[in-house]
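Model it.
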Amino acid sequence: MAKGSHAPLRSIQAAQKVKQRAYELGFEEVGITDVTPPPHRNELENWMSAGMAGTMTYMHRQLSKRREPAQIVPGATRVVVVTYNYFGADPAKPKRQGRVAKYARGRDYHLALAEPLRQLAEFICSLGGPDTLAKYYVDAGPVPERELAQRAGIGWIGKNTMLIHPRRGSFFFIGSVFTDLNLDVDPPFQADRCGTCTKCLEACPTSAFPEERVLDSRRCISYLTIELRGDIPEEYASAMSDMVFGCDICQDVCPWNEKFTAPAVEDLLRMRDDLAYIDLEELEQMSPEQFDERYGQTPMERPGFDGMRRNAKIALLNSGED
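Modeled.
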């Protein structure tokens, strides 16, 4: 062996080091899995064929890679899956204010989590040779995050299609790093701890769950307020109440969240109580420039100025006020 070189880490040692580094970077849970096809890949294709992806045409373009994660990053053999808590309690709601989903009350998580994921990927590369592969994702690209997380032992996929951790609930983001570093994999989370509970399904005001673990995006308030362009069908708009960006209902009523969810400790997302609600009249009178100044670098850029004004008008109508 050449002077200064060292023996490669065993897979279990490398996995332990990667996990320790992930915790140091602020991630709460870490699991490792391989890139074999997820067990529900056929259900995904059936879901799309039924039109439940709505106008999210990118889902169709990504289908092949979502069914075969090995295609996402050619050469990768492992996926390091991490979670980041974003929960914050709802402050008291003022009148004539629109409600914003908890995850959107701070910096855009795509931007905020990119740096710690980049550092984790860099650390993974440092454990291997100079050509070690490590590419990270956070709710972007064709990554079947929840299925990979379940297979990495982090939690189970609940009846509301959210990944649920048995001691943390479901208010967290999922990130991943694809790598070819030889890492010991974790056993999958096998148990279904939803039991007979159907609170999440019953609480949905637009009946977006035609059956357990099947979400019809076309009826989901998160999809309607964020992804859909143009008019929202009246039958769903009238059920949206005061929600102007996203929806937390199926998570708020989940017993696992009621019992275990705790406020986020890390301040990476810079969550703000003043973003929990939006003044509906102020939003209607805002200029595009004022909107960008106030809501730039937040998730509310996704529906944009026109989409948020549309949502605000619906919330005002639902309030019964002129």
